[in-house]
Design a protein that fits this description.
With 113 residues, the protein is of the alpha+beta class. Helix content is 59%, strand content 12%. The protein is built from six helices and three strands; from the N terminus they run ααβααββαα. A three-stranded antiparallel beta sheet has the order 1-3-2. A hairpin with a 2-residue loop joins β2 and β3. α3 packs across α4. The radius of gyration is 20 Å and the shape is elongated.
Amino acid sequence: MARAATTSDVFNAIAEPQRRQMLVLLRAGERPVTDLAQELGMSQPRASKHLRVLREVGLVRDRKAGKQRLYGLDARGLRPVHEWAGGFERFWNESFDRLDAYVQDLKQARQEE
């Protein structure tokens, strides 16, 4: 099965770790590309390429502010990821329930000692 183009599929776009780091940084608010590049230790052109991909899949928006272009998170683009991952929530909850039962058993055993 052929992979979807990175620029049209949010899953492919966030498969790149540095793009995920950019999204984390943008959770705190808008930032210019120079700040993102410096924070992530990459060149500005490389950061711009990553931002272009994120913008094209709807995860990042940009606006001009004076001489700068500011980039901000558009978390609505993560909806397909949230919906997909949400399908696994039942498995996580079952694991937490088992962990909680184990912790309760440990507490009970210590009280009986």
